[in-house]
Amino acid sequence: MFDNDDWLNQHREEVIDPDREIVDPHHHLWPKPNPAGIVYDLDDLWRDTEDGHKVTQTVFMECRAAYREDGPDHLKPVGETEFVAAAAARSAREADKATIAAIISHADLRLPISQLDEVLDAHLEAANGLFRGIRHSGPFDPHSEHFRIRPRSPEGLYRDPDFRRGVAHLGERGFTYDTWNYHHQILDFRDLAAAVQGTVMVLDHFGTPLGVGPYEGKRDSNFSKWKDDIAAVAAQPNVYAKLGGLAMPDNGFGWNERDTPPSSDEFVDAQAKYYHHAIECFGPERCMLESNFPVDRLSISYRTLWNGLKKITADYSEFEKAALFAGTARRVYRVSRPA
């Protein structure tokens, strides 16, 4: 699925600002062998992070990989944490490569608190000190048959009282809450954040502006509404924004269907307005630039992506760049600087 090197390598750029430190706060891993055919392990991650940019640390984001095959259903996601913790331990032994410095796992936040605590405690034990929070995402759309990445969440998850109780419990225990949803759900997420102000929440991928199916050809009108909704959710002080993930096929830019991949200039021309608006609303101290690899690898190379992000932020101050590329991620996910 992600073995598209030949396609990506048709376009190669010189690395911009190669000494800029990057903490990539959002990537996935899938083990080998994998019967589903989705494979992206530590060596694959390193192949991307070593491609010219100075990526020193990363944050793993749950992706339903390596779940336990046996045992209680609510504890099966702990298998993913065990798998990633082993990769993180290996990464820590390689001083010249990116280190997996934090893990965001999955739990069903609708569980009774006693069972939820059992899962959280199991993640803590399995992660060897790297567990930082939970992602239980909320994407729902009645037109998902048009999407490359199918949503799994029920309608109205953010309004579920049991779910809200679980999100609140994360904050009580000092853990973060990550989510991704679609652009038409951003205000629902805003309402969740307003109702559970004691939990640090991270909105992934700009709230995923869709551009396929019934959303195709409506980018300008959707962008206008998206701008207002992002400003509304940014008014909630417990919400942080991950800026990236717009190269997923369902965003509708169509790069994954071309004969050649995009350049960083094409990336900037198409997407810079999303970045500038989000940074204006949240402030750099509440924003972090992300790769969302390998999912965005379907459309753009790691080298080209980070070149584009450096071009988008070229006119920001050094303080602002430091926050966007590394500082905010370290603060939100409690990641110490490498020794």
Explain this structure to me?
It is a single chain. This protein is α/β, with parallel strands linked by helices and 339 residues long. The chain has a single domain, classed as Metal-dependent hydrolases (TIM Barrel). The protein is built from ten helices and eight strands. The chain has helices at residues 5-8, 42-49, 78-92, 113-126, 161-172, 186-195, 219-234, 264-282, 302-312, 318-332; strands at residues 21-27, 54-61, 99-105, 131-135, 176-179, 201-203, 239-243, 287-289. Strands 1-2-3-4-5-6-7-8 form an eight-stranded parallel beta sheet. Strand 5, helix 6 (186-195) and strand 6 form a beta-alpha-beta unit. Helix 7 (219-234) runs parallel beside helix 8 (264-282) and helix 8 crosses helix 9 (302-312). 48% of the residues are buried. The mean pLDDT is 96.
Give a concise summary.
The protein has 339 residues and is an alpha/beta fold.
Relevant terms:
single chain, 8-stranded parallel beta sheet, alpha/beta, 339 residues, TIM Barrel, globular, 8 strands
List the helices and strands and how they pair.
Layout lengths: L4 H4 L12 E7 L14 H8 L4 E8 L16 H15 L6 E7 L7 H14 L4 E5 L25 H12 L3 E4 L6 H10 L5 E3 L15 H16 L4 E5 L20 H19 L4 E3 L12 H11 L5 H15 L7
Parallel strand pairs: 1-2, 2-3, 3-4, 4-5, 5-6, 6-7, 7-8
Helicity range: 25-40%
Strand content: 5-15%
- Quote the distance from N terminus to C terminus: 36 Å
Structural class: alpha/beta
Q: Quickly give the CATH architecture.
A: Alpha-Beta Barrel
Describe the main β-sheet briefly: 8 strands, parallel
- Give the number of helices: 10
Could you please say which CATH topology applies here? Answer: TIM Barrel
Shape: globular
The CATH homologous superfamily is called Metal-dependent hydrolases
Element string (H = helix, E = strand): HEHEHEHEHEHEHEHEHH
| Rg (C-alpha, Å) | 19 Å
Q: Biggest sheet, strands in spatial order?
A: 1-2-3-4-5-6-7-8
Residue runs with pLDDT of under 50 for 5 or more positions: none
